[in-house]
């Protein structure tokens, strides 16, 4: 269905870019966590959020 809307040629070109975009998206996500407040973001990850409990 999507191939009919945008054309078969452009659909096959887009399919070849999916792995590259997935890798760069993952790299961007890791860079975001690295360069920002990592505790703020990793508090939403279930395994990691239990390791750093504050005893306030």
Instruction: Give the helix/strand class.
Output: mainly alpha
Rg on CA atoms, Å: 19 Å
Low-confidence stretches are none
Q: In percent, how much strand structure appears in the residues? A: under 5%
Quote the distance from N terminus to C terminus.
Answer: 55 Å
Largest sheet: none
Helix content: over 70%
Strand segment tally = 0
SSE topology string: HHHH
What is the global morphology?
A: elongated
Indicate the mean pLDDT. 80
Structurally, how many domains make up the residues?
A: 1
* Total count of helical runs of at least 4 residues: 4
Description:
- This protein is mainly alpha-helical and 56 residues long.
- It has one domain.
- The chain is built from four helices and no strands.
- It has helices at residues 2-6, 8-35, 38-42, 46-49.
- The longest helix has 28 residues, at 8-35.
- The radius of gyration is 19 Å and the shape is elongated.
- The mean pLDDT is 80.
How is the topology of this model organized?
Elements: H1 2-6, H2 8-35, H3 38-42, H4 46-49
Task: Please give a quick description of this structure.
With 56 residues, the chain is mainly α.
Core attributes:
Single_a-helix_sf, mainly alpha, 0% strand, single chain, 75% helix, 56 residues, transmembrane
């Amino acid at each position: 269905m999507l191939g009919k809307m945008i054309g078969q040629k452009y659909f096959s070109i887009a399919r070849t870019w999916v792995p590259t975009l997935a890798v760069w998206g993952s790299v961007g996500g890791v860079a975001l966590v690295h360069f920002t407040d990592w505790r703020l973001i990793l508090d939403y990850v279930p395994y990691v959020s239990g390791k750093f409990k504050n005893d306030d």
